[in-house]
Amino acid sequence: SVQPVTKSNVKASNGSKVNTSKNGTAALRAVKKTSKKSVSVAGTVKVNGVKYTVTTINAKAFANAKKATKITLPATIKKINKSAFTGAKKVKTIVLKGKKSITVKKGAFKGLNTKKMTIKVNKKMSKKEFAKLKKTLKKAGFKGKVKKA
User: d(Cα 104, Cα 95) in Å, to the nearest integer?
Assistant: First the structure.
């Protein structure tokens, strides 16, 4: 059988670019260039017949989605890196499907006006996790609304 490998900047079957690792996880490097208003990140990607779980959003991952107003992240995401949303200047809504708080690095929203943005989280997220996420987002420089949807 085909084993997961550690590689950088590999094109996944859905057209996005990812960094893969031996443990079967992937970090999103860049979404496929699009003029769509809504961009969804897949929870898994296939590279050379191997399925990887997408757990990280890397810097400038959404730079190719200049017209996107809504970005949906799967429940598999655990970490959003610095400058992850840089370049996606029209984003108004970010949807987090997971039930647990995630790591959001300082500067993840660099270059964006977050005051007009809303982050919608899974309505099944516990109060404790929700509070933890709000604190993390604030530390990362997010000034918009965070609500359960």
Answer: 14
Residue 119 φ/ψ, nearest 5 degrees: -110, 120
pTM of the model: 0.96
Strands 103-104 and 145-148: unpaired
Strand partners, 20: 7, 26
Instruction: List the structure tokens of 24.
Output: 């079967």
pLDDT tens track, the chain, 149 positions: 689 999 999 999 999 999 999 999 999 999 999 999 999 999 999 999 999 999 999 999 999 999 999 999 999 999 999 999 999 999 999 999 999 999 999 999 999 999 999 999 999 999 999 999 999 999 999 999 999 99
Contact 4, 21 (CB under 8 A): yes
| SS3 at position 119 | strand
In angstroms, the Cα distances linking 40 to 24, 75, 134 are 21, 12, 22
